[in-house]
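TASK: fixed-backbone design
INPUT:
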């Protein structure tokens, strides 16, 4: 089997290793993913005296485009970058942008934060760079590591690269002082890059090199774009060349946030923390409207790209956003944050378009349960009616109403459904479940002043005391099976009268040791007796239920006493 020189392993195994590395962030590729969302704004932060991250300035991409330049300081030139990636093979990057000192100077000059002009980036001070495809995994550099070392573009790298050996064949020739360009680290606003040689996998620029007369330098000058803005570009050092080090993974694409953390005491103090924003979705036909708000005075809201790769909030909210031809079966999630200069950001909330808010003109609904009598007694059957009412006229397309009835308290008799409604029954745990459903794709017009008859349930109480019918589902849908949000439903608690048998704590009609156990568990907090059960358990007639009552019931069952 053919083997790669210098590695001594089968080619298929080497390719497998390379594929694995392709999915390790910061290793085989310039960022955590192959695609992400463009950073339309750059957020500049600094840690304050307490370690809180304070917003200094939000710089729009359009402003950075107005500041960008190439190696000679003009917009007509470009910056060159030579690199080695993990393949290993030489790569090339060309771009226009803003140097790190220029970015910091601009921020200090433009921010409204008090004492921000005293912020420094020297020595062991650190800058953190956050990218859209990995906002929780920033890279960071001290001044000494980032700006304290000379960096260059080495055009001879491509001439003296030994592809078979995977290393530079003549280091001295590549390091020739007369054939290299000093280049600063910078944030590229527009850039382009790739592998240089045609026989390499993945994105390569060999065709552009050929068009440029076989010269790598300048081959991309007319092809720059901002799809990977902002790209942090760190040119090579002499040591990188001497060691044939892979450095292309140091490039970070889609940088949207830069944070300064001074090694000493920060001169700035946060003025507070911005409150969380809100984000609501309303649907009219197939047009989705997105509305965002923040109660914090002076705050601005940013949100992630709709239909984008990430939930990183990089777009300024300026007013309601509409999405045409919205498909409710394919919802999306937005990351939303509120910020203000001089303050710590709000939390980044996640807003799901599946949670549609009602239109202001939509009605509010109330499900109700009512018994046909106030005098409810054990053994006497009565009826509970279910209705649906609204505060506005509406068209009913669908509904579901589910009630849980405790089997220990009631036996369920006849169930009937209103016009157009259907019902079903089931048992679950210690409850009888009755579900009423309605479906009419054409819709039924309903007037607000007429409660809609859902159905009724006949119940027979089995014991005295109080018991509750729990509503576990209450839904009303509009056209398109979209649910209304303003739907309320309250449980129904019923008081059942009946003869109390002293000592019958579990309401089964006889007094046994189980009743003594019930009282003991109630006193221990392991279960809760109903009002009727409490009355039966208080065999000492002292107004409370204690372990003395449990003892007296035990004595009664054992025949030690014959009455309470």
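OUTPUT:
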């Amino acid at each position: 089997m053919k083997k790669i020189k210098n590695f001594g392993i089968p080619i298929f195994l080497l390719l497998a290793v390379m594929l694995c590395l392709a999915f390790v962030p910061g290793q085989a590729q310039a960022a955590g993913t192959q695609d992400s969302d463009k950073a339309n704004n750059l957020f500049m932060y600094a840690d304050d005296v307490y370690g809180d991250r304070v917003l200094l300035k939000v710089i729009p991409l359009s402003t950075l485009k107005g500041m960008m330049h190439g190696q000679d300081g003009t917009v007509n030139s470009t910056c060159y970058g030579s690199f080695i990636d993990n393949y290993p093979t030489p790569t090339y990057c060309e771009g226009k942008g803003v140097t790190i000192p220029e970015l910091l100077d601009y921020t200090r000059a433009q921010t409204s934060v008090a004492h921000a002009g005293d912020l420094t980036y020297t020595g062991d001070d650190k800058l953190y760079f956050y990218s859209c495809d990995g906002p929780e995994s920033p890279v960071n550099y001290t001044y000494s590591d980032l700006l304290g070392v000379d960096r260059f573009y080495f055009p001879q790298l491509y001439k003296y690269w030994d592809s078979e050996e995977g290393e530079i064949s003549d280091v001295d020739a590549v390091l020739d002082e007369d054939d290299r360009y000093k280049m600063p680290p910078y944030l590229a606003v527009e850039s382009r890059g790739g592998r240089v040689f045609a026989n390499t996998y993945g994105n390569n620029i060999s065709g552009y090199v050929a068009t440029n007369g076989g010269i790598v330098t300048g081959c991309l000058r007319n092809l720059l774009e901002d799809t990977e803005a902002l790209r942090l570009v760190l040119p090579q050092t002499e040591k990188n060349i001497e060691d044939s080090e892979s450095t292309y993974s140091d490039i970070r694409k889609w940088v949207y946030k830069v944070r300064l953390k001074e090694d000493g005491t920060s001169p700035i103090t946060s003025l507070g923390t911005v409150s969380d924003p809100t984000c609501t979705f309303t649907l009219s036909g197939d047009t989705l409207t997105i509305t965002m708000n923040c109660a914090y005075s002076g705050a601005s809201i940013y949100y992630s790209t709709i239909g984008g790769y990430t939930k990183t909030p990089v777009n300024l909210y300026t007013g309601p956003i509409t999405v045409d031809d919205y498909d409710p079966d394919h919802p999306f999630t937005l990351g939303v944050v509120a910020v203000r200069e001089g303050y710590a950001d709000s939390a980044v909330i996640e807003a799901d378009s599946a949670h549609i808010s009602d239109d202001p003109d939509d009605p509010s609904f109330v499900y109700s349960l009512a018994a046909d009598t106030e005098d409810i007694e054990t053994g006497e059957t009565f009826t509970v009616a279910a209705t649906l009412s609204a505060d506005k006229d509406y068209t009913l397309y669908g509904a579901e109403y589910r009630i849980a009835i405790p089997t220990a308290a009631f036996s369920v008799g006849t169930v009937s459904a209103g016009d157009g409604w259907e019902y079903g029954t089931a048992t679950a745990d210690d409850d009888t479940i009755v579900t009423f459903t309605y479906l009419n794709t054409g819709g039924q017009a309903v007037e607000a002043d007429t409660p809609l008859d859902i159905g009724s349930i006949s119940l027979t109480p089995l014991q005295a005391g109080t018991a509750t019918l729990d509503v576990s589902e209450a839904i009303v849908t509009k056209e398109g099976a979209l649910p209304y949000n303003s739907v309320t439903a309250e449980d129904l608690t019923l008081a059942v009268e009946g003869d109390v048998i002293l000592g019958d704590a579990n309401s089964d009609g006889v007094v046994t040791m189980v009743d003594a156990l019930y009282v003991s568990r109630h006193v221990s907090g392991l279960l809760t007796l109903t009002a009727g059960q409490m009355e039966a358990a208080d065999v000492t007639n002292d107004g409370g239920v204690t372990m003395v009552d449990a003892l007296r019931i035990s004595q009664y069952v054992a025949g030690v006493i014959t009455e309470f």
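COMMENT: Confidence is low (pLDDT under 50) at residues 1-32.
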